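re: the backbone from monday

yeah here it is again, tokenized this time
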């Protein structure tokens, strides 16, 4: 991605109007006139602008009427067509519309197919017909308020596609979890019951939360994260869990995510200790069957230490799959590094892959951030000197950053993870 997208500003008006005017003949027409688009911009209707090196290269704007929004135009410079910018602009525009409590997003485009010759022969004059596209955004009114109370939200579209590397884990989760939930009728014809609860386990930083968010994004379901620490702040953790699940039951569809679930479902000791977690684990064990009774809901629990969880918590009937999420292998690290280096010729991806063994996706992101900061600061130092250098970090910058990072995962953790896969994995 070589662009930045920001909210429309008044100083963008001339550039955006130029984009709209000059792209009308490139298959980017609209049923809304240029004057109507200018009116929407000047009246501060939702709009976003994409820039590359300070130059506007794309824009998307809408107009809101009640709970419906009309996407008026997506205009992209001809040099940037076919690079995913249109989707990126639409995603950012939809975020603004969702924040404005828009219930339906409509897009009207000129019809691209010619009308029948018979109509012309009958004396009709061809007028632009329309292709009408509409997107329904659920959860408004009381349901939206309930989602807000739970701290839930709809995640941006495309998060699943942005999961870099980890292709083996991604493929497994898509086949076992996403597709049966997305195609329940087709799955039922084959006797496949969509999962209702899964657990992701593995060393810290390997992307368990990223996968949970990606699943919610792919399904288009609201994402609700229950934080054990926040629930504990309510005083009675078992009661707080019971209350949270009761409110969640009012949502039509939802993905519930509990990270570090070992905090609320540890191995129970006998006899039960006063003030311990025994009662909390018991409460969670009772809540999961009720959660599983409803369609279009998924509980995703994540843990760094699956051996710390109570065995009754993980048994079949409560959790459909126990899926290991490990550190990225060579191919996965190459995919992740390629994403952060963005194809720059002065960044040797194979060298970075070899230097980052045992790095988690979070470790690689941290190293890439350090290298980018180094390149940024170096660029600032050259202001006024006349020195010119390609933007972005190079191989040495990345290698220096890798050397400064301490991998999250140790060889001992990898050995323990392998044993956990043998003892607990179920997929």
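seq for it, each position gets an aa:
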């Amino acid at each position: 991605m070589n662009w930045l997208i920001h909210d429309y500003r008044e100083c963008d008006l001339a550039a955006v109007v130029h984009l709209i005017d000059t792209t009308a003949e490139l298959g980017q027409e609209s049923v809304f006139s240029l004057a109507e688009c200018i009116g929407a911009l000047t009246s501060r209707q939702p709009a976003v602008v994409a820039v590359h090196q300070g130059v506007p290269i794309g824009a998307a704007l809408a107009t809101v009427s009640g709970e419906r929004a009309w996407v008026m135009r997506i205009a992209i410079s001809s040099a940037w067509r076919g690079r995913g910018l249109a989707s990126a602009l639409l995603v950012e525009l939809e975020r603004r519309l969702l924040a404005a409590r828009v219930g339906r997003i409509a897009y009207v485009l000129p019809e691209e197919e010619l009308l029948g010759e018979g109509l012309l022969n009958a004396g009709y004059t061809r007028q632009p017909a329309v292709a009408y596209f509409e997107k329904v955004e659920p959860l408004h009114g009381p349901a939206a308020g309930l989602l807000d109370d739970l701290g839930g939200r709809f995640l941006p579209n495309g998060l699943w596609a942005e999961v870099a590397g980890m292709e083996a884990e991604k493929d497994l989760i898509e086949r076992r979890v996403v597709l049966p939930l997305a195609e329940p009728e087709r799955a039922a014809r084959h006797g496949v019951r969509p999962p209702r609860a899964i657990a992701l386990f593995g060393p810290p930083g390997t992307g368990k939360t990223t996968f949970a968010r990606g699943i919610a994004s792919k399904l288009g379901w609201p994402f609700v994260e229950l934080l054990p620490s926040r629930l504990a702040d309510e005083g009675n953790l078992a009661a707080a869990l019971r209350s949270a699940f009761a409110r969640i039951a009012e949502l039509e569809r939802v993905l519930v995510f509990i990270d570090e679930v070992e905090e609320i479902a540890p191995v129970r000791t006998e006899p039960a200790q006063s003030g311990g977690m025994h009662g909390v684990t018991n409460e969670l064990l009772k809540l999961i069957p009720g959660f599983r009774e409803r369609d279009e809901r998924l509980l995703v629990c994540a843990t760094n230490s699956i051996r710390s969880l109570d065995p009754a918590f993980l048994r079949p009937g409560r959790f459909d799959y126990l899926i290991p999420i490990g550190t990225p292998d060579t191919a996965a690290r190459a995919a992740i590094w390629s994403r952060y280096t963005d194809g720059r010729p002065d960044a040797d991806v194979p060298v970075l892959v070899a230097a980052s063994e045992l790095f988690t996706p979070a470790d690689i992101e941290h190293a890439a951030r350090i290298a980018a900061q180094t390149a940024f600061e170096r660029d600032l130092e050259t202001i006024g000197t006349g020195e010119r250098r390609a933007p972005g970090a190079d191989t040495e910058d990345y290698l220096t950053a890798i050397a400064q990072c301490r991998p999250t995962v140790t060889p001992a953790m990898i050995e323990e993870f392998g044993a956990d896969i043998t003892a607990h994995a179920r997929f």
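The longest strand covers residues 55-65. The chain has 17 helices and eleven strands.
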